[in-house]
Input
Amino acid sequence: MTFLATFLIGTNLHGIDLRKLFSDGRMYLYVLIRQVLFPVVFILIVKNFVTDPTALGVLAVFAAVPPANIISVIAMNNDCDMDILTRGTVFSTLLSTVTMALVLSVML
Output
């Protein structure tokens, strides 16, 4: 299923203007909430229950990774807008190199 989702995103990425990808303010807000604020709040809550630093680090990584791209298969099956989905997946994956480092450096 992962190959199919990656293939769908790749074929939809072919027709997308990359300037439009980085000029959409909603994408920046989405990445800020999903990949920075959510992991920080999640780890602050989980830190009260998990004492093992390795387990806490694993949970921090899981919380900070971009969302799975399997949603593209679901969107295609339901005739949803693949353009915004593809831009969101690519944008969040590209920025995850910065957001994951930021979250992990702050939280651990």
About this structure: The helical segments are 2-13, 18-23, 25-46, 53-64, 71-77, 82-107. Residues 2-107 form one domain.
